[in-house]
Amino acid sequence: MSLQITANSYHLRFLADEDRIVIAVDLSPEHELAMLLTRRLTRNLLAALAKMMSDRGPAAAVAKDPVTAAANPVLRDTILDFEHSQSVATAVAEGHMRNETREKPPAVPPRLVREVKIVPKPDSGLALIFGTGKQVLALEIAPDRIHMVIETFVQMAERAGWDLPPMASWLDPAKTTVVTAPAKSLN
Hints:
Radius of gyration: 19 Å
Structural class: alpha/beta
Helix content: 25-40%
Order of helices and strands: EEEEHHHEEEEH
């Protein structure tokens, strides 16, 4: 049986006993199509998405500007960090990005994703096409939601306890703000 689905929304959860991330889309109110992602495939997907975001948009324009060419990596990463933070904050505020505990029975047994294709769209969006050999799931991602997709995969990998290497400095999940205590003076 071959199954091909195109969707705009998806759900992620972690299967600890298989050490896999499940990506699922609703087929009906009672069933879903679920596919399994390995740690390696998730790492490669995140690296490819991070590179794609670095190579386009305002950050890419900064990198191509000869005046800022000397400082472009820092400036590009600063812009990307801002874009990423703003996009994720907006998605959380609008309720598009949230932790879910739901689990529907799959319509067919979940299969391991063997390949992921990233297809850029003319509107600056993209399609993520997950293939198992017998199942194909195409996720249509709007341009303003690409950072949200990246963040959902990063967060799920963190929850899974996967120690993925940093994909880009602007996407480093270990990045934290260090607050130092005010200096005390002794008289």
